[in-house]
Structure formats: structure tokens, C-alpha cells
Amino acid sequence: MKFELPEIHKISVDFDGERFEGAWWVIGGGLIVGYIGYTDSTFEWGADANKIATTMLRKLVRKHYVKLEQIPMTIPEPIRLAAYRYVNASLEESVTEEFVASFGDSVPGSLVHERLSWLCVNAISMIVPAWKHLCDDNIAEQLYDDLRRWLADPTRAVDWPTATTPAVGRRNGVQVEDCDACRLEPTADAVASTARYLQIADAADAIAVLSSAGHAYNEGCHSRGAPDRFQKWIVFEVLESAVKCEPLP
Predict the structure, then answer these.
(1) What pLDDT is attached to residue 235?
(2) C-alpha Rg value of the chain to the nearest Å
């Protein structure tokens, strides 16, 4: 039997004065609607699939849309506005770039550098514990601890060549290349990008941290009870500490 990908149909709805994009497709007779990583489905969709899908999309938006007033007022307004767009967007690099850029010019030794450094370090704290369950070693969490402690006290020694190079996940001495690679590789990239950002304050590295950490998070590298989306965790549990230049409580 030949496998064919389902046809994707784009749809949009107006809600709270804004336009939200989604899509629908059919698999096994079921109508599935997607919105920024969330889905809903029904087998009772009749002839007018687009109308039913639009109604379902509006329900998804109503349930998962984050209003600006939900984001803490203690966060500087440019960052807060960018965080609002970031948490309500799909995984688009441009939105992540805008979020990082909202902190200001990333200059070594500046307040922006310090805030984004804490954002990066805190962002990887959720994903690194999974490494030890998938590999022979615990290098990801060890490097995270080194970077966190160095950020709090720059007199501490860090093996920067090792920290800035993505680690290779090995199991029984052999590089992991099965389905766990989709968890290990973005975790390694996120840790290495964090180390590079701490060293040279290149905003591209901070963007890479959020992108790679988000991929690992979406592959299950997070604790039970964690927010359903990486962006929510960043905005509601990481961002305030980063702005204050503090580790997570």
C-alpha cells in the first residue's frame, strides 16, 4: 500500500481583535485541526469540513491563547510585548529572533548580555536531566551546572572548549543514532550554544539555545507536570528570573 501524506488546508479565525492561523487535514476518516502545536479531532464532520474545522480552531484558540495581561507587568515592556507574540506563535525562527532582540543590543558585559545569559542557562535547566537516562554519562547536566555556577561567580573555572562543542551521546560506548538522537542532539546543541553565548554575547547563539531547547522539550525532555509548550515555560517560569539576572528558584 502506498503511503501518502494528507492534504493540509490552511484556515484562520478572528479572536480578541487578532487573526489566528491554523490548519486541518483528514487521517483515517477523522478531521484533525492544528494550532501552534495543539490539535483537536472529530469523526463527525459531514460535508463542510472547512466550516467544522474553523469552529474547532476557534475553540482551540480560545482555550490556549495567552492574553497580554497574563504576562507579568514586572517584565520590561518591550520584552513583555515580544514575549506575548512568542508565546502565541508557532515554532517560527523569526518570532524567536524578535523575542531575543527585545532584550536590546547584545554587547559583552552589558545588562542585556547578563539577562540573556540567565535566560539561556535557565532555559536548558529543564532539558539536561534527561541526558543521563539516555546515555552512558551525564555530561549535559554537568556542563549546565558549570555554566550556571560560572554565571553566578565568573572566577570559577570552566572547560570552555568542551562546553562550547556539542557533546556526543553514547550508549554502551556507541553513538546514539536511534530515535533518542532527536532528544540528545538538540540538547547538546542547546548546551553548547549557551556556553558560546556566555562567552561572546552573539544573539544568534541565544536564538539557537531557545530553538534547540524547544526541540528537546517537544521531544519529551521535561518533567511531569511541565507546561504543555516550551514557550509557556519560558514566558511564565523562566523569563522573570532572567530579567532579574537570577537562577530559577
Answers:
(1) 97
(2) 20
